[in-house]
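Example 3.2
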Amino acid sequence: MADYLEGRHAVSEAFAAGVPLASIMIAAGLKPDKAIDAIRRKAAGAGVPVREVKRSELDELSAHGAHQGIMAVAKPYRYASLEDLIKAAAGQKDALIIACDHVTDTGNLGAIARSAEVVGATGLLIPNKRAAAVTAVTYKASAGAISHLPIAREANLATCLERLKKEGFWVMGASEKASQDIWHAPLEGRIVLVMGSEGEGLSRLVQETCDLLVALPQAGCIGSLNVAQATTAIAYEWMRRCRTQG
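Structure, written as tokens:
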């Protein structure tokens, strides 16, 4: 399905976030507007085609009827493969791949990608069903990190984890029920960090595939951080540990 962005603000932000756009549609007869003029200039500079359409066409495409006479179509994201991630990590003593076990929120996926890129992770691994895919929202939430980080989308996450073990990765699943916290776990070297879904956490099969389960230390009263926040904390501990022991 096409990924549509609706309204002046959304289309302007797409350029700022580095979302690759296929085209922009503007309603015929729209009155002159500084925001629209700025979008036209950005589109011309980026080589994005702009075409005028009937307003009724935008009405039919709009999900919430607030397109303001302008919509953009994002290009489909080009996913990497598991083999691409393996090749990227080849020969590295320290490498981090973050696997998302059916994380469903596109904003969370973007935030995870942002943290992954900042700490120097090799890439992300996501399932191709019942999970968030890369959309314009993901680009925005990642603050542009999506453009610099390979994301592999595969059918069977557990099978991929077994493959990564053969490539010398240690598979660690994040679980608030784990008996070992990240400060005492062997969180350095070649690691696959597996983060569970927002509601259910790690699935049974994926959890059974992990070499070790780890938890975040906690001093407060609430249950846990959300998946994106937890990923950031653990990813930074991996980076700190690698630098300390490097």
